Every structure is written in C-alpha cells, then in structure tokens.
Amino acid sequence: MYRQNQTLVRLLQPPVTALGYELLGIEELREGRTALVRIYIDSETGITLDDCERVSEQVTGVLDVEDPVRGPYRLEVSSPGLDRPLFTLDQCRHYLGWNVRVRLRSKVQGRRKFTGRLLDVQDDSLVIDEDDVSYTVPADLVDRANLVAEI
C-alpha cells in the first residue's frame, strides 16, 4: 500500500512507541531542495499539541544521530485528523464501511482516483463501492488513501 521510507519507519517506530503512541505512518515529500518528513501519531485518548511536541523532540534526536534524510529537512509531527491517512491494509480493515478517497500510481479501469465506501480489504486489494459500482483496487498501486471526513 502506501509507500513509506522503511528506514525511517524502522528508526522512528521504537521511540514513538516507547512514548506511548502509535506510529500510523510517515510521509516523506520533497519541497525543492528541502524534504518534509511528516509523522502521523495516534493514541486511544487522541493527540494534543503537547503530544506532537514530545514526539518531535524525541524523534529529532534520533534523526540527528542516524541522519537518514539526505540534505536539509523539515519535521512535522501530526495527529491523523478527520481525513485520516491510511498507510496499511490493517488500518484499512479497521475502517470497513467508511468512505475513503484513494489515489493510484497507475490507472485501474481507466481511472486513478476513487471515492466511495470501503467494502472489503483482501490480502492484496481494496474493494470500493462508488455510486453502486464495486471496484477492486490493487493495494500495491495505492499512492495515497484517506478517510473522507463526514461532518
């Protein structure tokens, strides 16, 4: 599913977990010459600004010592928010029946974007119902998946 820098996940999972949080996923984006490293955390009681600061301080130390990001970078630690990103199939399984927005790296049935109800999560695919049509989307083609905020 969502491609993550596995070196960053391997380095940052232990300190985030040790602080009592769940590491949902890591985005690494390029902004010109600078990288943006965005870490999503969660806990059963939710996430506050103090939680993000706490994790940021711990993670900054690890990143400074290990230096896994080439060149300058900016670190963000965030709660998942209402449009929660979904990084793994297990995370998707937790939200069966919810509306999702999925963007693919290449086309499936002539499309790269799907928005609809998540009907099923199989070993290697997502099944999304969009306007009463079911689409099976290979998980390895998913570039990004998010819940659709329902307010």
Q: pLDDT below 50 for ≥5 consecutive residues: which ranges?
A: none
User: What top-tier CATH class of the largest domain fits best?
Assistant: Alpha Beta
Q: What is the H/E order?
A: HEEHEHEEEEE
Count of structural domains: 2
Average of per-residue pLDDT values: 94
> Which sequence of strands runs across the widest sheet?
7-6-5-4-8
The termini sit apart by 27 Å
Number of helices: 3
Task: Give the % helix.
Answer: 10-25%
Largest sheet report: 5 strands, antiparallel
SS strand fraction: 35-45%
Class by alpha and beta content: alpha+beta
Kindly provide the radius of gyration, computed on alpha-carbon positions and rounded to a whole number of angstroms: 16 Å
Q: In the CATH classification, which architecture of the largest domain applies?
A: 2-Layer Sandwich
| CATH superfamily membership of the largest domain | RimP-like superfamily, N-terminal
For this structure, the CATH topology of the largest domain is GMP Synthetase, Chain A, domain 3
User: Which word captures the global form?
Assistant: globular
Number of extended strands: 8
